Amino acid sequence: MSSPPSGPAADRASCAGATPPAGSERPLRVLLIDDDTELAGMLAELLAREGFEMRHGASAAAGLALLAAEPPDLLLLDLMLPDTSGLDLCRRLRAEGVELPVLMLTARGDPIDRVIGLEIGADDYLGKPFEPRELVARVRALARRQRVAERRTALRFGPLVLDLLARRATVDGAGLALTSIEFKLLATLAAQPGRPMSRDALSAAVQPGGYMPLDRAVDVQVARLRKKLRAAPGGGVDCIETVRGEGYVFTGRAG
Where are the domains of the chain? Predict the structure, then answer.
């Protein structure tokens, strides 16, 4: 019996193999920014039981550092923070183009806070104290809404995500430094996973018009793209295969 592979190649995840087992999805990543550590502990236990992953920042500064280190899928944001207000932080995030769903939490009952929060970009609002089941239901609803929106503008294959609007690719949240042609190649292949694409088809996709580069030029671009994918954080991903006599195929599974 042959021994299992070892070394960097063994640590590299294929886009297919990196997805969870059939019927499941990657746990939803929730970031809580709230200075109430007792509440944070309760929510961490509650969300873990529901299959979510939660991280906690006790201030705006701590929360922003966590958000930059590993972008979450959803933000729970307290209205009153020790170093700024939740409203100001939400306004800042939206101004910087951060589009993740935001659920505002507050112990204040002033309806104007709710109105302002929704107007500056919060997606939902929940007053404290709240029923735990209601929080879970709202988190799930926001997550469903976000994933429906993502399907229209993004392609997700395990750790690899292609943002088609921003023309940006990430692996486990870390951006890949792709050229315009490399991103077009990746997006063209990923749009039809499992279907071999000829060099002529790839050339036409990345260089519209009369110019058709030599097959060798396409091979060089694909080789560079593969190298960047394999060098991505976390061991990289390996999701483009050569199909002898035909071209290339993307092997990732959506999820």
Answer: 29-153, 158-250
Same fold, 29-153 and 158-250: no
Segments in 70-214 forming alpha helices (H): 86-95, 111-119, 132-153, 180-190, 199-206
Q: 87-126, pLDDT tens digit by residue?
A: 999 999 988 878 789 999 987 666 777 777 778 888 888 8
For residue 165, how far is the Cα from the chain centroid?
14
Which CATH number is associated with domain 29-153?
A: 3.40.50.2300
Distance in angstroms (rounded) separating the CA atoms of residues 39 and 128: 10
Q: Of 36-40, 170-174, 246-250, which range is least confident? A: 170-174
Instruction: Report the distance separating Cα 40 and Cα 139, nearest Å.
Output: 15
Report the distance separating Cα 79 and Cα 82, nearest Å. Answer: 10
- Give the amino acid at 224: R
What's the fold here for domain 158-250? Arc Repressor Mutant, subunit A (1.10.10)
Strands (E) in the chain, as ranges, are 29-33, 53-57, 74-78, 102-106, 124-127, 154-157, 160-163, 168-171, 174-175, 197-198, 240-243, 247-250
Residue whose pair of structure tokens reads 């995840």 in the numeric block:
13
